[in-house]
Amino acid sequence: MKIYFFLKIILFVLLFCFSIAGYAQVETPKDTISNQLNEVLITADKKAFSNQNGNIKVDVANSIYNSVPNTLDLLSKLPTVLLSADRENISVIGKGNALIYIDNQKVGIEDLNTLAVGDIKTIEIIKNPSAKYEAEGRVVILITLKFSKKEGFKTAVSETASFKKSFNNYFGLNSSFKNNKFEWKANFNYNQLQPWESHKINYEIPDADIISNYKVAAFTKRTEFIYGGGLFYKMNEEDYLSFNLSARSRRGPFDIGTQTYNKKGNSENNVITLSDNNDAKRFLNTFINYSKKIKPINTQLFAGFQYSGFNQDQNSLARNNFNDTQFEWAQESIQKFNVHVFSGRVDLEKKFKNEMKLELGGLYLAAKAKTDFQITNFETGTMVISKYHLDEKNIAAYTQFSGKIKKMELSAGLRIENTNAKGKFESENEALIHKNYIDVFPKVALNFPINSSRSISVNFAKSISRPNYSSTSQGATYINPYFLYSRNINLNPTITNEIATSFQYREKSVRLSYYRNSDPVYSSFTFDNQNNVLIFKEVNYKKESGFNLDFTLPFEYKFWSVTNSLTFISNKIEDQSAVFSESRPYLYYYSNNTFKLPKEYALTATVWGLTTQKEGVFESNAKCILDVAVSKTYFKNWDFTLSFNDVFKSTIYGEKFTVNHISSQSRYGVDTHEIALAIKYSFGKIRNIEFKEKNIDENSGRIK
Fold first, then answer.
1. In the prediction, which pLDDT does 13 show?
2. Measured between alpha carbons, how far is 704 from 563 in angstroms, rounded to an integer?
3. CA distance 600 to 240
4. What does R_g of the chain's alpha carbons equal in angstroms?
5. CB within 8 A of 153, min separation 6: which ones?
6. How far is CA 59 from the centre of its chain?
7. How big is the CA angle at 303 (ends 299 and 309), to the nearest 5 degrees?
8. DSSP one-letter code for 82
9. Per-residue confidence (pLDDT) for residue 556, from 0 to 100
10. Which residues pair with 190 in a beta bridge?
11. Closest by alpha carbon to 402, among 462, 454, 354?
12. Nearest of 286, 495, 524, 491 to residue 392 by alpha carbon
């Protein structure tokens, strides 16, 4: 394994050195690039990547990336973007969890699961978002949808055959139609998936004289339907009314097998645990938007209402075999979780003649989450039934002022949010959780252009990261007789203060930032001595701080275009319950290489990875990933792409830490080694589509 790792490192170094060598030879002027403070503009060429002040924009529609079968896998291939092992969180290196927008609407992970890659025009990673974006998150991933310019219709049919440990199939149908002022869009996807994952952990509890380990593997057969549609009516050049709906439904059984060794004092046990599970998830998101230009005062008004709903039903039946005897029933669990979110917002935007702009807005949100929890323990003959309710209301108001003062570009904003959350068990009269707090989030950004190709920027921002609704609900997963995964209803939000400065030279940039987090959320252990069970759950740690030094170095040379991204990270996590071992800087590296070959073939090779991460409490393993793809278009309507992902089978997450006098070392394997063939056929023509969407629910990312 070490030989493979060093070979991959050598491959990356060679690609990076060639990139630097090419950069030294060729430097294409990009004086047309705007120096706007917080936005990235793409020039007229068809490059896959563009960069300004470390903000990277990807042209998906005109690159090989439009053949990736789903949006989550597409995002995982972009520079600095990381997809968690359970595919439930998207983060950006050095910035934490990302705030995600589709056009002007804030969305969550479930919305991305309903979005067809064929509808995406560009993806932009904004590392210094302005105050017009919500306070939730330090980085924004902005997805812009593509539309045409003439009336008519267009339909695309796609099929992707994916070979991993098992066969996976993706079928998609996307259609759009425009007639005069009326526009319509629809999509339908049918997927047959067979994901696999494994997890291994060794742990010791000296205070209880316990040494234990287990290895678990899960195999799922899942049927998934994704569908959606939208209507847009353009009243005149500036006013419109739109409605949009997107949904996903998936269900299927998944079998889990676990091998466990447990030694407590002089007692040793080898246990095999088998569990039969069924899981069903349903997600629905709808919204109505209205935009109106108030001409007497030259102000743009936006008003919208949104509903999001998520339901999950999960049943599990587990049995154990101790020391090669016989299987006996251990536990049955029936868990249901649902959340419903209603929200409305109003935004006003006033532009002045001297290039100044004033923005005002407000939002009201109400969320209700409910958990039904029933566990039957066959060993003790007991049953636990519990129902937990969480009600949360958010009221927010913001103002932002932006413009130019001589050559300096200024953006300053302030956002005030009030959160009122109550959580209680149905059997109790008084609320177990009651939080009512007001937070103020200032954001300031300054940009100083030196000349047409150089600029310096400085920005400060305060942000918040709230836990997902499901994370603060009741729930548990049975692994073996000694180990349990649990949620935490007592999680608090994380507050971040960050200051950064960057230097831009044409499309090359360097950015230095310092941040400090209070109440960051990380994994922890607690031991239930009475039941002899180790409980794994997320908790709030005391603090986290660090520095990031980012280099973004794109270049082009004839048929070869490259985007290189290097981030040096020094991160320190601290808490009185955990052992602080060591904090050392580590490196994230990314190199995307695209080759335009003869006969309109395109070849893409992407290498990315991390060196060993030592962050005070946690130490994570190094990794290096290689993805390769080749694409070709025939007869203008047929697109073929052959992809080889995670060529060296390197997507393994290793971690070790000690907390509450419990030391652990874990290894998580994901089924990302893949050979995939994608075919897409397009017919019809449609242009001048002006479908506009804007998010109402600023907490939609928490629905999962």
1. 45
2. 33
3. 40
4. 26
5. 175, 176, 177, 178, 684, 685, 686
6. 19
7. 155
8. E
9. 86
10. 171, 225
11. 354
12. 491
Please give the order of strands across the beta sheet that includes 533-540: 476-480, 483-486, 533-540, 521-528
For the ranges 24-28, 149-153, 256-260, 555-559, which has the lowest average pLDDT? 24-28
d(CA 216, CA 668): 10
Nearest of 581, 430, 461 to residue 99 by alpha carbon: 461
- Report DSSP letters for 317-337, one per residue: EEEEEETTS-EEEEEEEEEEE
pLDDT beyond 80 at 54: no
Q: Give the number of residues written for the chain.
A: 704
Three-class HEC string of 206-248: HHHCEEEEEEEEEEECEEEEEEEEEEEEECCCCCEEEEEEEEE
Q: Is 560 helix (H, G, I), strand (E, B) or coil?
A: strand
State how far Cα 396 lies from the chain centre: 24
Which residue, chain included where needed, has tokens 């419903």? 340
CA pair distance 262, 213, nearest whole angstrom: 7
What's the pLDDT score for residue 244? 86
CA distance 472 to 390: 8
Whether 251 and 234 have beta carbons less than 8 Å apart is answered as no
Token code pair at residue 229: 């549609």
CB-CB contact of 273 with 479 (8 Å): yes
Which residue reads 């563009």 in tokens?
50
CB within 8 A of 180, min separation 6: which ones? Answer: 151
Report helix, strand and coil shares of the chain as percent, to nearest 5: 10, 65, 25
Residue 39 has a pLDDT of 34
Contacts of 331 (CB under 8 A, 6+ apart): 316, 317, 318, 375, 376, 377, 378, 379, 478
Residue 285 near residue 306 (C-beta atoms within 8 A): yes
* CA–CA gap between residue 482 and residue 35 (Å, rounded): 58
Residue 379 has pLDDT above 90, yes or no: no
Q: Looking at residues 677-699, what average pLDDT do you find?
A: 67
**3-state class (DSSP) for residue 264:** strand
Predicted pLDDT of residue 40? 37
Res 5 pLDDT > 60: no
Q: Tell me the residue ranges of DSSP E strands in 617-673.
A: 619-620, 623-634, 638-645, 652-659, 662-670
CA distance 305 to 112: 20
Q: Count the Cβ atoms, other than its own, within 10 Å of residue 444.
A: 16
| Token duo for residue 213 | 């380990």
Structure tokens at 691: 């479908």
Calpha distance 289→239 (Å, rounded): 11
d(CA 603, CA 629): 6
Among left, alpha and beta (phi > 0; psi -120 to 50; other), residue 683 is beta
Is 100 in a helix, a strand, or coil? strand
pLDDT band at 537 (very low <50, low <70, confident <90, very high): very high
This prediction's pTM: 0.85
pLDDT tens figures, 356-371: 999 999 989 999 999 9
22 in helix, strand or coil? Answer: helix
Position 584 pLDDT exceeds 80: yes
* Residues 47, 58: Cα–Cα separation, whole Å: 8
* Cα angle value 522/528/531 (rounded, 5°): 140
Q: Would you state the torsion angle of the CA atoms of residues 462, 539, 584, 204, taken in this order, to the nearest 10 degrees?
A: 180
Q: What angle do CA 78, 84, 88 make, to 5 degrees?
A: 110
Cross-strand bridge partners of residue 331: 318, 377
Residue written as token pair 């130490």: 619
Contact (CB, 8 A) for 183 and 145:
no
Angle (nearest 5°) at CA 492 between 488 and 493: 125
